[in-house]
Write a structure and sequence with these properties.
318 residues; alpha/beta; Rossmann fold; six-stranded parallel beta sheet
């Protein structure tokens, strides 16, 4: 037992000496590859490409697409491709603060910074005159949106002074995380400072779009926001009558424990006190709406993706 303990201490000490990873230039965080929304923002953000909408354009629904922890705007590229340049709605892909750039930027970012990226884009679209702004979020962005709802962000920012009413908002959560499947995340507060970072098992090609190295500082931030939202759900969240919320959850999610959907389903009520909409999806993929570079995609996986895209783009008009 003593020998095992000493070996563990030595391994931790060794890890502590490697707190800054050496990242290949071809990987996200390596210094060369950056998220394309930074170099070509007009392609990804309607607030940039069309900052002065006509009255008719201002009525067209906007869907703000928000990615998860360690990810990038790539996570919603297939939704944009599937939409095929439609004029029925606009797609606005937000890059969370600290993501899609350098390891150092990611390392120093907080969950409040990540959340502010979503808030800022929403407020910018409102200020430009858009009146039908919605959200399609995946993984950790779902957690951030739940906090925004619970904290009263929309109560302050969704009011339309021109109409004297609140703008309607549709919120779609794809594989939200409240409880991680990897229970070791709860140990990050104890071991994080010794480890410095952990690595993720990305599939071939994903290193350009997802951080391989996860700084312990950001893992602690992830743990903090999960704790925050878990407490909010336990206390109960009631949606205002201008917010519709639906959850889509893979039943065998390797990243976000499916019990996350149960906590949201039980913790969030509609404005009338009813149950929110929940679809349990026959999938073992985390963020089942993103299939590009995922190994061994099946016809059912593709069917699940198209179902979610179709459902989202139908419901924003209801």
């Amino acid at each position: 037992m003593k020998k095992i303990f000493l070996i563990s201490i030595l391994l931790l000490a060794f890890a502590a000496c490697k707190k800054t990873p050496v990242i290949p230039a071809g990987d996200l965080g390596g210094g060369i590859i950056m998220d394309p929304s930074l170099t070509d923002p007009a392609t990804y953000r309607i607030s940039v490409s069309q900052p002065k909408p006509t009255p008719a354009q201002a009525q067209i629904p906007v869907i703000i697409c928000c990615h998860g922890y360690t990810a990038s705007t790539f996570e919603w590229d297939e939704f944009r491709t599937w939409s095929n340049g439609t004029s029925k709605y606009y797609i606005d892909q937000v890059l969370l603060a600290g993501h899609g750039t350098t390891y150092a930027n990611f390392q120093k970012s907080t969950w409040h910074d990540w959340e502010s990226s979503i808030m800022d884009e929403y407020n910018l679209l409102v200020s430009e005159g858009y009146q039908h702004i919605n959200f399609a979020a995946s993984s950790t962005s779902c957690t951030l949106l739940l906090d925004m709802i619970s904290s009263g962000f929309f109560k302050v920012n969704a009011f339309n002074f021109n109409t004297g009413m609140y703008n309607n908002i549709h919120v779609f959560l794809v594989d939200p995380i409240v409880i991680p499947s990897d229970k070791n995340l709860s140990l990050i507060g104890v071991l994080g400072s010794m480890l410095g970072y952990v690595t993720s098992n990305n599939a071939p090609g994903e290193e350009q779009y997802y951080y391989h190295y996860r700084p312990e500082e950001t893992l602690q931030q992830l743990q903090d926001v999960l704790n925050q939202v878990r407490d909010e759900l336990q206390n109960g969240v009631q949606l205002p009558d201008y917010i519709y919320l639906k959850v889509y959850k893979s039943i065998k999610d390797p990243t976000a424990d499916p019990v996350s959907a149960v906590l949201i389903y039980n913790g969030v009520k509609t404005s009338s006190g009813g149950k929110i909409d929940l679809d349990l999806v026959n999938s073992d993929i985390h963020v089942f709406t993103r299939l590009s570079l995922v190994p061994n995609v099946t016809p059912l996986d593709k069917q699940n993706q198209i179902y979610a895209f179709t459902d989202i783009t139908t419901r924003i008009f209801q």
